[in-house]
Design goal:
With 146 residues, the protein is α+β, with helices and mostly antiparallel strands. It is built from 1 helix and 9 strands; from the N terminus they run αβββββββββ. Bound molecules: FE2/S2 (inorganic) cluster. Residues 97, 99-100, 102, 115, 117-118, 120, 132-134 line the site of FE2/S2 (inorganic) cluster (FES).
Length: 146
Amino acid sequence: MKDEAVAVRAVATADERRAERRRFLCVAGSAAALALGGEWAARRGERRLAEPPTIAAAELTAPDAGAARVVAAEDGREVLVVRVEAGAAPVAFDRRCPHLGCPVLWSAERARFECPCHHAAFDARTGDVLFGPPRRGLAAARVRGT
Ligand code: FES
């Protein structure tokens, strides 16, 4: 009687270990798959966002001198189109700040792009950083059909 009880307990323990190992492998496998999937998605998103947005040439119709307007790029991102001064060709930049992605604004009185999040400013003609934390300037939009 005593031997039967020991044998039953030993079998149950072996089953538990097998089930525990299976559970561990399942959780570890799921975690690895999630990590790889997240890494893949992040790299894919970075690659997509690293490319400048594209707008149709028809969208480049300039607002009045010193004014800006927001245009939707082909991938949905926002592009700021500005005619800095009368007679100048309009410029178009990705609206996302290259620092942490806040939408930049056009300051007509200072004739520059400004990011309100961490007080950065960008040159109106080139998109280069004038001051603030961004290490690179605004990305110029591609214009399709010019
Ligand atoms: S997000 Fe624009 S300066 Fe930080």
